[in-house]
Structure prediction request, 690 residues.
Amino acid sequence: MIEHKETLVAPWQEWARRSIKGRRLLEAGTYALTEGAIAAGCRVFAGYPITPATDIAEYMSKRLPQVGGYYMQCEDELAGMHACAGASLGGLKAMTATSGPGYTLMHDAYGWSITNEIPLVVVDAMRVGPISGITGAPGQGEFYIARYASHGGNFETIVLSPSSVQEAFWLTIDAFNLAERFRTPVTILTDQVISDMWEDLFIPDDYDGLDFVIPRKHNLMMPFYPVGSADLDVPPNVIGHGTGVCVSAYTHTEEGYDIEEMEAQWAQTFRLVNKIRHHRAELTRYETLGLDDADVIAVAYGANARTVKTGVLQARRRGVRAGFVRLITLWPFLDELFERDARYVVCELNYDGQLVREVMRAAPDKRKVHFMGKSAELHTVAEVVAGLDGVARSGKIPELPYIWTEVR
Amino acid sequence: MNKLAKKYLRPSQIPTKACHGCGIGMIENWLLQAIDELGLKQEDVIFGTGIGCVGRQTFATWGGDNFGATHGRALAIATGLKLAQPDKKYLIVVGDGDAASIGTSHLIHAARRNLGVTVICEDNMGYESTGGQFSPTTPAGYVTNSSPYGMVEPPFDPCDVVKAAGATFVAETTATQWHQTVKIVKKALANDGFSFIHVRFPCNENFGAYALGTRDTLKNLEWIYEHTQGRKTDGSESDFVWETGIKHDASNSRPEFSRIMRDMNARVQADLAQKAAKKAAT
Prediction:
């Protein structure tokens, strides 16, 4: 038996310890994402069908009317996310779900929701790209797109990624809470495997009794936009309560009036960037294993992290001092997890190399950051073991079919 | 400042940045008159706009709650908002770009759903805030900064589009029809469903200058008037005519979108309660 220390840092570790009455099910990831949203108080879903996120829409169309919510099937993803933003401005928690092709169409609304500080949750079940690519296979091609989910810069985003059906449930509640606290859209970046996979799932019987769910509050007075401030937990603005709030696409004053001045742009950007940067500790979620003695550390997220973790444990059994980092928070990027002067093997589901570039930036020596890119299938345990073993022995990933190691 | 502006608008936000002689302020004043005659208060009406001349000049003038959407998406936002705030009146004031070009799919589907909003499409027949390019409502043959040889594409009539899609109130007026526009806006706001009003108005700086050859407000209004009447001031027939007035009035003839959704929820919840009661009894 090899000893290893496993760390999982996420708020639901605390939630799950409570004696919540509930039931165990065998259910799909899409089901968990839907039920997590409803448990978090989501009452509007507006979206457009797309594989592999369609099941969320179908579950929502059944569940929302039962709890007094509204399911809207829109004319396109542009309308879907804008309708969610409208509903959230009207005071209802809202979510949309899509895959890569729809996610890029949502960026218009994403930017609008960021600048107007509208709480929302967006699920992107990643498949293989570019464009339609392979619709029924897992990909991880929206790592950077999710960070830059709008044009124009001057903002930070929050992106989370679950790695099991159970985690998808808790993480959805978590995402809604963060959206409320930070007044911003939150992306759940999941993938085709987690969405479609059926797994053991515990869900509470009574959603009303969940005291860790942050309820919607309304900001009923000025300032509507605390520009120049990084304050957390400012209640979201609401339309329809006669507050005279102004919401727009423009750079705004604290009343919401459009303004074209450099100083106003500075103050708005300070708010949008620093409300997230100054509260990074509130956003840190990850899992690590064996980091205290590791020579070579495998890095992954989402479905892929499952086989990678098994590979790490097998490599340790073979005598390789291997460690494991699984990112749950993808953005803001957790630089602090890459401080150890070790070799890193980044396993992700794209050939161009996305996560690996961030790890290269964060690690002490980017020459010691190795890439194992694959697409349309998870890394096999054997591939992960071969990669870790090769890097530990010779500082190189051996040649493996369908594995890409070039980044530059 | 006139009485209506004092009652309904934000003194700090007017006058707007609109060009000299622009019709947007005038039409907004007519909207206020209709709102006032219906006895509506600031908090009864949510004012939504888009991008471009009409979006920029009307955004945040309304004293109540305002939203300025991304380009074309005012109706998509209003669809979600209406679910959360079904009891409000919605005045969606957008230009021809928002309604008839970039956001036409949302216009069509809002009409299909009979979403309870009143859309005022203030049409200056082109993209004037970006310097005067043609739009889908620019009359054929007219010169703009992106149709220097004349507009060669055929235009379309957004009223026909929304009527075909199922709008329950459709009307067209121009910036030369004050009283008619006020009456029509009042009827539109009384429809618990999708109302669409197409209002043409002159742009002096771009459409006027390039298509009509003058920046003179009165001359540009005269051009609008001639095409509203179908006859020029010298008595000859104009090159085309806009048919104004109420084009389709099926007000309150079918259920409004958010009402349909709430009715379905009531039905689903009643079924659930019945099933639960049956289960408890057995």
